[in-house]
Amino acid sequence: MIKIFDSNSHFLQSQSLKSKYFSQIKKNNISGSAVTLLPDQSLDELFKNYSNSPNFHPIPYFNGHNLNNLKELHEIYNFKGIKIHPRFSNLKLSDLNIYTDLFNFAIENNQFIFICTYYHTKTNYPTEDPIFSISKMKNSFPNLKLILLHGGDVRLAEFAQFTRHFDDVYIDLSYTLTKYNSDYIDSQILFCFNELDEKCLIGSDFPYVSLDLFRKRVDLLTKNISNDKKCNIYYKNAEKIFS
Question: pTM of the full predicted structure?
Answer without folding.
Answer: 0.94
